[in-house]
Amino acid sequence: MNSPLRSVSAFCAPTAGAALGPVKIERRPVGPRDVLIEIDYCGVCHSDLHMARNDWGMSLFPMVPGHEIIGRVVSTGAEVTDLAAGKRVGVGCLVDSCRQCEACDDHLEQYCVKGFTLTYSSPTRDPGGLTFGGYSKQIVVDRNYVVTVPETLDPAGAAPLLCAGITTWSPLAHWKIGPGMTVGVIGLGGLGHMGVKFAHALGARVVMITTSPQKGEDARKLGADDVLISSDAKAMAGFAGKFDFLLNTIPVPHDFNAYMGLLKRDATMCIVGAIGPAAALNTAPLVMGRRNIAGSLIGGIKETQEMLDFAGLNNITADVEVIDVAAINDAYGRMQRSDVKYRFVIDLATLD
Ligand SMILES: NC(=O)c1ccc[n+]([C@@H]2O[C@H](COP(=O)([O-])OP(=O)(O)OC[C@H]3O[C@@H](n4cnc5c(N)ncnc54)[C@H](OP(=O)(O)O)[C@@H]3O)[C@@H](O)[C@H]2O)c1
Ligand SMILES: [Zn+2]
Ligand SMILES: [Zn+2]
Hints:
binds NADP nicotinamide-adenine-dinucleotide phosphate, Quinone Oxidoreductase, Chain A, domain 1, 2 domains, Rossmann fold, single chain, alpha/beta, 11 helices, 7-stranded mixed sheet, binds zinc ion, 6-stranded parallel sheet, 26% strand
């Protein structure tokens, strides 16, 4: 027989732009394929801020954000035979997809053509009618969307791997970044600092491209070989045509044209930050150099597991500032001001 509904403490945004505060939510009974997870840490992604403010016009409220979830298995349904209680596990941005389309067959659930279920703010048959994310004590997730996390990794530092990590890993893997290549990471925040770490670990030469000169020293410590200040026109001209790949994590609409000239012939700038309309694109740098502009969304579950295994082998975690759950509204304000070093992570032990 299924276990009963479970009342769980959470932090919730009641409406768009409202401050987050404590609430009780209900988690569904643990079904045969489900995993009940006690959440230890949850990273704070800039997407949480976009979603809580309804920047993308798709948010559903009340919203319990959080899709960088690290916890331990409490119990599992009868059909889950490979996850014992106590196992360190993670949940990222997706908790379901159609499991039948070409994308799902290819382990690319993030591109599911019938639409995936986001970890929060997606319609669901669960209690409350909406998925609720990781700013909460416990979550129930189908085994197929749960990944295992190397025990050697610091759990707070590992939490951001579930979104910032996979969102930067996936394009670096897709575009086969490795030794002999020069990669520019644009924007030193949660995604950007993971992009620098992974591109460096994959053997590429890494240039941090930033609006914040004061972050240069940190960028080098994170693995950047060079730092390029994007407002310095002379320095930008010096890097013209030097990059095999650009990973653009800027969270707001901006002028892509400023960066296209940095690419070599045939090279690609991949957008992972700004989602939505952009300023007019000058196609001349594309046509004249057969350059590409592309986008990428998080990563599939299999790829997320591969990224976590790589992170475990190479001891890669995020640089985090662990906060009490009550500090979340201040943390959003600081993230808005690009004042994050380099990811806030909520310690769920601070939630009653
Ligand atoms: N594609 C996906 O699947 C996916 C997944 C997760 C997140 N995202 C999106 O990726 C974006 C970045 O997320 P994040 O969590 O890394 O954010 P973040 O921690 O706030 O970092 C963003 C960084 O971008 C730079 N930046 C901010 N405003 C800028 C501006 N007006 N012009 C130029 N640079 C600016 C800043 O770096 P500097 O100070 O170094 O310039 C800032 O630290 C967000 O929009 C988020 O929603 C997308
Ligand atoms: Zn995210
Ligand atoms: Zn699908």
